[in-house]
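Work Package 3 (structural annotation) set out to generate three-dimensional models for the target panel prioritized at the project kickoff. During this period the team completed the workflow that converts sequence records into discrete structure tokens, so that structures can be stored uniformly alongside our sequence database. As a representative example, we reproduce one entry of 98 residues exactly as it appears in the project archive.
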Amino acid sequence: MAAKSAPKKNLSAIKRNRQSEKRNKRNRAERTKIRGVIKAVEASVKTGEKDTSAGDLQKAIKTISSAKSKGILHRNNAARKISRLTRKVNALSKTVEA
């Protein structure tokens, strides 16, 4: 007869830890992407490029909304980030017109 190996303990905890690490890596990458698009919008606003900042804003809104729907960002946090970026871009438009 083949010798039985002892049952492993805490299998669910081991699996849970593995899942947690995988999700942490995924979420960290998504948050890094969010910070990057926010910086891009702020940089284009700072230079005063109206068209570029509008395009960057749309990309940022898409990225932030995607993170919100995946549960990476809280909905209020996402709304606040989008609102602040939109106000900056709109203020740029008003200063260019004036």
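The chain has a mean pLDDT of 92.
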